[in-house]
Design a protein that fits this description.
Elements lengths: L1 H12 L3 E7 L9 E7 L2 H17 L6 E3 L6 E5 L3 E7 H7 L1 H4 L4 E6 L5 E7 L3
Length: 125
């Protein structure tokens, strides 16, 4: 849970919009958590990913896979049991990962200095 908090805190600190954490344990073999957010432009998304990767590396959290950085429309950052999806806003709406993973419980994120993560409600659509 600490790793998710650290990563979510970096997303929030880099002005990620509408941060959502999905608990996909038991639903996906890819990861335990998905963190989904978006930026206001492709440059914003690229900047978020770059700054996050550097800051997390300094904390000993290494990105083991990165895709989509050049385009900046959908950047996937693989941190092992946590996968971060950073979108350009309209692309996030188009792919609607929250809808695709609607059976996954959400974790609520309190936006403050500590990026507190609380158990959320299951999302139903």
């Amino acid at each position: 849970m600490e790793k998710v908090k650290e990563i979510a805190s970096e997303v929030i600190g880099n002005k990620g919009e509408d941060v959502v954490i999905l608990d996909v344990k038991g639903l996906s073999s890819l990861a335990d958590y998905f963190i989904i957010s978006h930026g206001l432009s492709t440059r914003h998304v690229q900047g978020m990913a770059d700054k996050m990767r550097r800051a997390l590396r300094k904390k000993g959290i290494r990105c083991v896979g990165l895709e989509g950085e050049k385009e900046g429309k959908w950047i996937l950052m693989d941190y092992g049991d946590v996968v971060v999806h950073l979108f350009y806003g309209p692309v996030r709406e188009f792919y609607d990962l929250e809808g695709l993973w609607s059976q996954a419980p959400r974790m609520d994120v309190e936006i403050n200095q500590d990026a507190n993560i609380l158990p959320g409600k299951e999302v139903t659509r």
